[in-house]
Every structure is written in structure tokens, then in C-alpha cells.
Amino acid sequence: MAWRCGAHVIEGSMADDQTSDPTAGVTLQRPVDSARDHVRGGGADEGVATLVVYADYLCPYCRGLRHVLAHLRQTLGDRLVYVFRHFPDERAHPGAEFLSRAAVAAGAQGRFWEMHDWIYEHKPPIAPEQVFAFVKSLGLDEERFRRDLDSAATIERVQSDVMDARSTGVTGTPTFFIDGIRYDGAWDYHSMLEALQQPVAAQVQRTARVFASLPASGGFVLLLAAAAALVCANTPLAPYYRFVMDTSFAVGPAGHAVSMTIGAWFSEGLLAIFFLLVGLGIRREITSGALTNPKAAVLPIVAAFGGVLAPAAIYLAINTGATARGWAVPTATDVAFTLGILALLGDRVPIALRVFVAALAVVDDILSMLTLAIFSPQSFEVIWLFASGIAVALMLALNRARVYAGWPYAVVAIGLWLGLHASGVHAALAGVLLAAFLPTRPAPAAGPLLAQAATALAALEQAEKDAGQSSAAQRRIQQEPIWEWASRNLSAASSRLLSPADRIERAVAPWSAYVILPLFAFSATGIALAVDLHSTEAVRVLLGVVAGLVLGKPLGVLIVSGLAIKSGIAVAPRGVSLCMFVGAACLCGVGDTVALLMADEAFPHSADAAVAKIGVLSGSILAAALGVVVLASCARFANRDATPPH
User: Fold this and answer.
1) Residue-wise over 398-420: b if at least 16 C-beta within 10 A, else e?
2) Which residue in 143, 163, 174, 343 has the fewest CB atoms around it within 10 Å?
């Protein structure tokens, strides 16, 4: 695979995967158009809700839900706008496309809903002769109906709904959208009624889903927290900010509690959860994604070494004597901020590039921990590192024994975190180690799970029919053993779709993006900008750190990556142009909070430590700006090259 500057490569390109809207599947891509869509109801002055359904006339689940939808329309009346859009699956349900065209053809004569209701009321198979007989009973112009049935306009009308559905992320029927937001709740009457009546909780939940679906939302919150920290640290709020961040907080039994400042808890404690997510993402890419090829997995490892050696060399070229001790400060890349910036760029950044940067940053953090351990031996406790190794061995044993319960891993992970913390290694790396050993399962066959779920629901349905439809009977059924049995089977079938690693990732991801990382950013970037730069040594420290981050990081990543690819021991990320790779290399110059710790270790009780920290902040801002400009330019050039000539 070769790189071409300014454009995606064709071979193995992932460009097609990046063309869809990142909010697809969450928000409705084409708004409701009363002049074009099949719309029923509405007209109320207030409290109107819009329900869009993508459906197949022969889908048994769509047909089964017609009673629920009719009940909702009866309850809400003019406050419900019901919109039907076609999504026939001809391969699964032969004849579905014909029925969709028949409804559109009837709609051309103003009788869409009559045909719609008639189709759903008749049990399949529905022969064309039955449709034509119903057309005659409606008093429609039969000749026109037959012409419209096979006309290009009718076929295009149905296909346009299908294309809209696919662009929106619809994969099956029925799929519902309430006020433009996909509804993923239960399909029973009471659940859907609650969503349509729009209580405050439902509105907040829908708004949160839309915001979370935006690719830049997590990065925006992260940068907002970082900006707030800078404001707090450089205004009259600074004493209060420092008081909060430096306040000690102990966790554990008296006499054996782990005590750290709140800022350290955010860095070592909460950030371990973020590293867990990063590790799970890298593991997934290694097993079934962009890093499946061993040569692709080698690239971020060797690039990380280049990203450490080059900044150190540039710093040492500028600094000699006492200030040379700060060579390690510009070597650390901040994975949280770097991935947050990539998230701000949205779908303009290929997934393979994000995976490469995440893997590089994790290796970079490991190298940073080793740097601290080797060159700051006073904080390195071998006995606790040995205890951490025992914890890793226990997690490996649990994984090999196929223990799928989550709590044993959580207990061992806490022990691992404590061991790393006590040994002097950044305990957040416990998240990466936990991610490596969380168990996964082969994907289950859909047939047995479908049979299990269908059996449970069929048993409940039969029990309801036997008991009658009174409310008292409904309550009695919920107290019967069959209700608990069905609930257990449905829960087992749904939970089997996700491995323990998948469940943890889904549960933790929102907390990481909108709570953990912002708190980390708020604690890490609160640096006072007022420093004394009158001495030559201070200027050299500042220039060494800034040059190491802005120039050394990208040069080291690019040179070593180029050599590795040229020699054949590694391959470039699929679908990533050279231009984009350069932009990502520039973003690797965003310094880590470990760099701030390295500054304190290199210059204890010295004003040069504050200068080095300002260098980390300044270099990070410049590296981030340079990387964003390069990546944005790459996307603009790629779009221009992809535009066909007039």
C-alpha cells in the first residue's frame, strides 16, 4: 500500500466508510414533508408529536404492531402525526415491493390510507388479483392504477424511501423515529405512549442522545473544561481552584487508606477508566479491525519510540548543563486530548487513523512510565510492582478459565491499580491491562436466540389470552411463574448478544466522554501562565520543550514510521493519506499530564519546573493547532479532488 499526498488511496480505502453522516441511525436525515410523505393525523394546536415508521407491508412484526399504532392514534388523536415510509425487503418477503407500489398508486388517486389499512388487515399471501379487486371496490380508475403501479415515478417513490432509510441507518423493520430521534424503547403501547407524550425526562434523554451522536460533542466538552481550568488558574479564582485540586482525599480503611489530592485522583483514578476504553478499542481493532494485520499493529509501537527519542534529542540539542535534566518533559503524548481533538474533526478523520493514534499514545504512556521508573528510582518500589504482576497473572487465569462474570475482574483490577500506584507507576495503566484480559465470546447464532425470545413471548401472549383482558388478570399474570420465566429467558437472550467487554464498554463510554475526561482536563490544564523568562536557562527550557513537542514529536513519528514501512516490517493505516498521517503526527505533540510530573521530577524546587510546564502547555496548543490545520486541509483537498469536473 502506498501513500498519495492530499488524497485517499484507492486500494483498501476506507473512504466509503466515512461518507455517511455520523448522526445516522440516531436522527432522521430527511425531515417530514407533508407534500411528499404519507401523513395521517395532526392538527392540534399544542402537544403534537410526530411518529415516523419505516415499515414493510409483509413484515410480521410490522403487521403485529398495527394494533398498537391504532391504539396510539386513538388515544392521542390530533396530537399525533403518523408518517409511513416504505422499506420493503423483497428478499425476505417476496411481494412486499409490489404492495408498497400498490399503496403509492392508490395514493396517486387520494386513497393511500385505505389501501394501507386494507393490506395490513388481510393475512398474507396477498395476490395481485385481490389488490385489483379492492381497487375496484374503492371506485378507483383501474386503468390508471395499473399504469401507476408500474410507472417509473411509483418505483422511484418507493426506492427513494428505501434510500432515505439506508442513509438514516435503518437496517430492519419496523424502525421508529419520534420527533426526528430514533426510538429504541419497547414496542408496547404504554412505552410508546410515554415517549410520544414527551415528559420532561423523555425530552432530556432525546436531547442528550442527539448531542452525544455528534462526533465533536465529546471533544467540545473536553476543550471547554480545559479552557475553564485556564481561566480559573489565571484569575482571582486561582486560590480556590488550587485549594480544591490540592485537597487530599483518602479512600479505604483507617490506617491503610490511599490518600491523594483530588487532582491526582482525577489523573490516576478516573483516567484508568478512560484507559480501559482505549484498551478495549485497540483490542477490538487488533482482533477484527484495522490492526488485524500484525504489520499494522507494529507501526504505532515503533512510531511511539520515534516520538520519544526525537523530542528528547531536540531538547538536548538546545539545553546543556543543569537544564538538560528536563529532556523527558516533551516526550509524553496525551491520548485523552489527542483523541478529543480528532473527535472534533468528526468523520473527516478515518477510523484507522484514530486507532493508530490511540495505540501510539498508549505505548507512549507506557514508555513515559518506564522513563519515570528508571530515571526517578526513588519513587519505584519493586515489591509492589511484583504484586501488580501477580494481579495481572490472576486476570490471565480468569480469562483462560472463561470466567464471564464481571466482578472477579473488577476486584483484581482494584488490586492491580493499588499495586501500580504503590510501585510508583502511573496507576491509570491498570485500565489498559484490564482491557487486555476482559473476556470476549464468539458471536452467537441468531436462530437459537430468536427461538428463545419468540418462545418466551409466545408463552406470555398465550397466558394473556387464557386469562382474559381485564386489568386484574394482567396483574395476576405478572405474579405467575411464567412471567418470571419469560423475563429470565428474554434477558438471557439479549445479554448474550454482548460479551462482558462489550457491556462494560457501552456502559462506561458516556461517563468517560462527558464526566471523566472533562474532570481530568479541568484538573490537568490549570497552569498559571505568569513565569519569569529573564534568565537564559529559562528561555532554553521553554524553547526545548516547545520545539520537542511541535517539531520533535511529528518528526520522530514520521521518520520512524517511514523507515518501518519502507523496510517492510510495518504497513501504513488503510485509507489514510500521507497528508492525514502528517496531521496526526502533529497532534501527537499534545503533551501529557505525565509531562507535568516529569517537569517536577526534573527540576525539583526550581522555577524551571514552572517554565517547563508553560512549555508543555504552549507546545501542546501549537501542536494541536498545526495538526487541526493539516487535517482540515487534507479533507478539503480530498473533497476537491473527488469533485468531478463540470
Assistant:
1) bbeeeebeeeebeebbebbbbbb
2) 143
